[in-house]
Amino acid sequence: MDEEFSLDEIISYARDFQNFEKVFSAVYLHPDWLTTIPSTRRWAILHHIVLSGNTVHFDQILPSQKSNVQFRLLTKTADQETVLDIAKSHVYLSDMLKRIERLIKLDELLNYAREGKWDQCIEIVKQDPSYGNEKPPYRRFYLIHHLAYWNAVEPFKEFLKIENFHFALLLRVDGKKVNDIAREANCEAFANFIEKEYTAYFDDDDDNDILYEPSAAQNMLNQHDANIIIVPHTIYNEPQSSSAPAKKLLNRAEVNKLVPRKAKPINISNIPTRYSSKTILNLLTCSLTRATVTDPVVAADGFTYERTAIENWLKANDCSPMTNEKLAHKDLTPNVLVKRLLDTLTQ
């Protein structure tokens, strides 16, 4: 936690394809560093990672940008090259090129959706129906959440006419279902429609106390006098497509078997002032349970999870809980950075 490093040093590691663990740590602590180009440099960290051809490292670094609204995948080098240009210019980067091209297509789809350009969205989903239920790791909304935000009932029906396409109706944003997103935007027509047409997906069983709780850490960031945070644990399970039967959400007894109930309190006052408290607390939060991790691991999608939670997810799923993309593998790697943060902040 007390380790000091400079942007220039980290760019040097990325340029030489060395010490990715330190590059990973630096970018997660300073998300804007991924695409920052100092005056003495031509390329940012992201460009060097692409040139390395290591798609594992590429996927692991992108989730660092989920809170960076300024991030753009096609950020340019000082020579006006994008990551796409770099990938196209080297034969050995064929796998990297495919990955970048897919992310670009997903970005195109979601940019159209954000603007309410449904005809263009439909054409993209026709090309590959899987696009309709995936998103890049640095985006907040899936396609269906944009539809909800636009109160777009009729366009939703048009998507259903696409051959071999079904919406994954329980994809969530910050733990919220699509009907919740619609109501937040005062789009009652969409919320009412989706609840009526797909009752089984949105009829919560209150007797099981299965409400998805937001991370208490995020709530308490707004309380300036709060230094000690203890985060509750919850977890959900959901089907991958609307064609599959709705899975029953896990109740409290089942949750107890999956994740530790007791996490050590996090002392915010121990966070060095050079780091954002929000950034640190995001790092300490399991992407699946939204609770403080105790045994943090990184999955193939680059997101950090509580080990037992993601292991349970992987027993029944081969996709990322955060992007719905198919995982390259199911191996889990200890998150050394987060573990070190935990050791420091729980002292």
UniProtKB/TrEMBL annotation:
Q: Where is the U-box domain?
A: 279-347
Q: Which residues form the signal peptide?
A: none
Superkingdom of origin: Eukaryota
Q: Name one Pfam family in it.
A: U-box
GO biological process terms held by the UniProt record: protein ubiquitination
Q: Name one GO molecular function term.
A: ubiquitin-protein transferase activity
SUPFAM superfamilies in alphabetical order: RING/U-box
Question: Which PROSITE patterns does this chain map to?
Answer: U_BOX (PS51698)
* CDD domains per the UniProt record, alphabetical: RING-Ubox_WDSUB1-like
Q: What is this protein called?
A: U-box domain-containing protein
Q: Which organism is it from?
A: Rotaria socialis
